[in-house]
């Protein structure tokens, strides 16, 4: 054989074996298909240029290094917001020709290819096509995956059951199906709770005076004092200061339901923004709403939040801005926004806890409103602090009430500069994380759950966060054609449980929302930095888990000893003592009150 050919053959064989090794490394999901694999150089911001192979499927981009430096990347295509060509055929300098990828999850990727023969054309076209399927007439991966789980996560939240858990309907609040065909409001759920005395006709007249027909409806009721959290959109007051007697009367019915003296209306916006909204036909409740007081919470709009997170990304990726860290962090204003959202929710929770009903709105009632109602409910109701209860909270206040996930995240859409994109839900999860830090024993779930939720907010592997509202989800048959994220979570619950959790049903949590007590969520925002990643689980948590396992082991041994003690042969030997209950109640029942003090 000619030596050149044999060399080529050896190269091809080693290349093929690397490819097989790469494919063996990736555990493809059912329904996930290989699109292309290619030799490539990853320009790693931490290790420099790394040679390896990239595999692109209809779900992910996977890279594995072939160098001595071990680098792997596993990026769901849904997390990509932008793909650009870097350099041209005549670009000079090493590794100056390739691809620049911007991600939605706080990282960017850069790959270099050989300059000859349009070597990037195929990979660019295929990556662009599969990262943005909706822009190319393709299906989102959630519709392609063949994953199967024993329990369907679509059954986690059932509106009637959740209202029943809250003690509804009662003699002051009723359930209405006026929106069953989405005719009253196309961005609201089909099942709504409204004042008992309101008539269907009243609801229609109120809808005409509220932005996008999003009328005030009940989110949560306090079991003891019957105070409620009601959510809606802004009233259509406009420049001329329009009034609507039906809307005024309707808010008074809400107030009367538990004899609140003054109904508090929390407008999430800064005062100036609310006034400016009058120019576009919106506005806020004025003095004509008697027995009501209006409070502005000063939370900025979606555009301000988007720019703030962009600034945060600039100071943490790829390198953490070390020299002026504190001033750099402050200049992003991210924690300041988190503080304002949290302190708004604290005010809502405190008002309701003291027996006063509240109404919460922003402009349309699907961004800041969802943040405030869900966080206040988390503070007031320990059920939402359990693993399943938290799933219900997200399904109810965010998904069913029409937070515009599709517009805010841009699933499968190539328009990365779309002004509708905004990290409102990420900010909510950050607020939840801040609460878990301040109350480490109050939540049944751990940080891993929050990270998993945010990863799949982008991944498009599950149907949970797709589309803007329930009517759109019905239209696209999300429940029957895709899998719920909660199917995955509830199939391996143990990894999402907080070992420090201590159930306390009546406790209201008031986090401290001052800048001194808020932290940057490093394990989310800076997790791509290898220095951060090396800091494993906290030693205290690790030790505590070991102690719990030990306790379980001893309890099991104790149970076995008791069983052998109560077996017929041992019973003959030991005559029973009259008043012992040890064999009737299990050891775990006897010892559940034991909590390791910290």
UniProtKB/TrEMBL annotation:
Secretion signal, residue range per the UniProt entry: none
Main location: membrane
Disordered: annotated segments: 562-598
Catalyzed reactions per annotation: a 1,2-diacyl-sn-glycero-3-phospho-(1D-myo-inositol-3-phosphate) + H2O = a 1,2-diacyl-sn-glycero-3-phospho-(1D-myo-inositol) + phosphate; 1,2-dioctanoyl-sn-glycero-3-phospho-(1-D-myo-inositol-3-phosphate) + H2O = 1,2-dioctanoyl-sn-glycero-3-phospho-(1D-myo-inositol) + phosphate; a 1,2-diacyl-sn-glycero-3-phospho-(1D-myo-inositol-3,5-bisphosphate) + H2O = a 1,2-diacyl-sn-glycero-3-phospho-(1D-myo-inositol-5-phosphate) + phosphate; 1,2-dihexadecanoyl-sn-glycero-3-phospho-(1D-myo-inositol-3,5-bisphosphate) + H2O = 1,2-dihexadecanoyl-sn-glycero-3-phospho-(1D-myo-inositol-5-phosphate) + phosphate
Biased composition (Low complexity): 574-588
Residue sites binding substrate per the record: 301-302, 362-368
Topology of the protein relative to the lipid bilayer: Peripheral membrane protein
Enzyme class, spelled out: hydrolase
Keywords: Cell membrane, Cell projection, Cytoplasm, Endosome, Hydrolase, Lipid metabolism, Membrane, Protein phosphatase
Matches recorded under SUPFAM superfamilies: (Phosphotyrosine protein) phosphatases II (SSF52799), PH domain-like (SSF50729)
Domain called Tyrosine specific protein phosphatases: residue spans: 332-378
Swiss-Prot/TrEMBL GO biological process terms: mitochondrion distribution; muscle cell cellular homeostasis; negative regulation of autophagosome assembly; phosphatidylinositol dephosphorylation
Any GO CC annotation of this UniProt entry: ruffle
Active site: 362
Entry EC number(s): 3.1.3.95
MF GO annotations: phosphatidylinositol-3,5-bisphosphate 3-phosphatase activity; phosphatidylinositol-3-phosphate phosphatase activity; phosphoprotein phosphatase activity
Compositional bias annotation for Polar residues: 563-573, 589-598
Superkingdom classification of source: Eukaryota
Compartments where found: Cell membrane; Cell projection, Filopodium; Cell projection, Ruffle; Cytoplasm, Myofibril, Sarcomere
InterPro entries: GRAM (IPR004182), Myotubularin (IPR030564), Myotubularin-like_Pase_dom (IPR010569), PH-like_dom_sf (IPR011993), Prot-tyrosine_phosphatase-like (IPR029021), Tyr_Pase_AS (IPR016130), Tyr_Pase_cat (IPR003595), Tyr_Pase_dom (IPR000387)
Record family assignment: Belongs to the protein-tyrosine phosphatase family. Non-receptor class myotubularin subfamily.
Protein name from the UniProt record: Myotubularin
Organism: Lates calcarifer
Lineage summary: Eukaryota, Metazoa, Chordata, Craniata, Vertebrata
């Amino acid at each position: 054989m000619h030596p050149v050919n044999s060399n080529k053959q050896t190269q091809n064989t080693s290349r093929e074996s690397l490819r097989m090794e790469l494919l063996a490394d990736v555990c493809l999901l059912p329904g996930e298909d290989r699109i292309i694999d290619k030799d490539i150089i990853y320009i790693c911001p931490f290790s420099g240029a790394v040679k390896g192979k990239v595999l692109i499927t209809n779900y992910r981009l996977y890279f594995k290094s072939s160098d001595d430096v071990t680098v792997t990347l596993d990026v769901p295509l849904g997390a990509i917001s932008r793909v650009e060509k870097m350099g041209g055929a005549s670009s000079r300098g090493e590794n100056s020709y390739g691809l620049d990828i911007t991600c939605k999850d706080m990282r960017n990727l850069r790959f270099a290819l050989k300059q000859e023969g349009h070597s990037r054309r195929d990979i660019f076209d295929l990556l662009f096509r599969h990262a943005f399927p909706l822009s190319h007439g393709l299906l989102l991966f959630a519709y392609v995956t063949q994953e199967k789980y024993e329990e369907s996560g679509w059954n986690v939240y059932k509106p009637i059951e959740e209202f029943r858990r809250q003690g509804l309907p009662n003699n002051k609040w009723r359930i209405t199906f006026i929106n069953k065909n989405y005719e009253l409001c196309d961005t609201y759920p089909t099942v709504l709770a409204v004042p008992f005395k309101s008539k269907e006709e009243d609801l229609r007249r109120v809808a005409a005076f509220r932005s996008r027909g999003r009328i005030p409806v009940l989110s949560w009721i306090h079991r003891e004092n019957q105070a409620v959290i009601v959510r809606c959109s802004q009233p259509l007051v406009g420049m001329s200061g329009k009034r609507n007697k039906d809307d005024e009367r309707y808010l008074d019915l809400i107030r009367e339901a538990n004899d609140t003296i003054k109904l508090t209306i929390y407008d999430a916006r800064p005062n100036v923004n609310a006034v400016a909204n009058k120019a576009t036909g919106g506005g806020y409740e004025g003095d004509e709403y008697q027995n009501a007081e209006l409070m502005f919470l000063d939370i900025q709009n979606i555009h301000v939040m988007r720019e703030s997170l962009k600034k945060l990304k600039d100071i943490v990726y790829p390198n953490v801005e070390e020299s002026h860290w504190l001033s750099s962090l402050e200049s992003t204003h991210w924690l300041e926004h988190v503080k304002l959202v949290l302190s708004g929710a604290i005010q809502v929770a405190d008002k309701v806890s003291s027996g006063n009903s509240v109404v919460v709105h922003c402009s349309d009632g699907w961004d800041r409103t969802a943040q405030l109602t869900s966080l206040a409910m988390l503070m007031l109701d320990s059920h939402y602090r359990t693993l399943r209860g938290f799933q219900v909270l997200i399904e109810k206040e965010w998904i069913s009430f029409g937070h515009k996930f599709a517009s805010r995240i841009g699933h499968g859409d190539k328009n990365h500069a779309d002004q509708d994109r905004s990290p409102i839900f990420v900010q909510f999860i950050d607020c939840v994380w801040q609460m878990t830090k301040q109350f480490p024993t109050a939540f049944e779930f751990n940080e891993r759950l929050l990270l998993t939720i945010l990863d799949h907010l982008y991944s498009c592997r599950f149907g949970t966060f797709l589309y803007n509202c329930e009517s759109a989800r019905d239209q696209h048959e999300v429940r029957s054609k895709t899998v719920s994220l909660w199917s995955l979570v509830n199939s391996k619950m143990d990894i999402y449980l907080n070992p420090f959790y201590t159930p306390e049903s009546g406790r209201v949590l008031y986090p401290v929302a001052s800048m001194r007590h808020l932290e940057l969520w490093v394990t989310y925002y800076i997790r791509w930095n290898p220095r951060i990643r090396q800091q494993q689980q906290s030693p205290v948590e690790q030790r505590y888990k070991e102690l719990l396992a030990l306790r379980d082991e001893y309890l099991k041994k104790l149970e076995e000893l008791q069983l052998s003690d109560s077996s017929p042969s041992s019973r003959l030997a030991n005559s029973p003592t009259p008043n012992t209950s040890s064999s009737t109640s299990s050891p775990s029942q006897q010892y559940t009150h034991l909590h390791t003090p910290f």
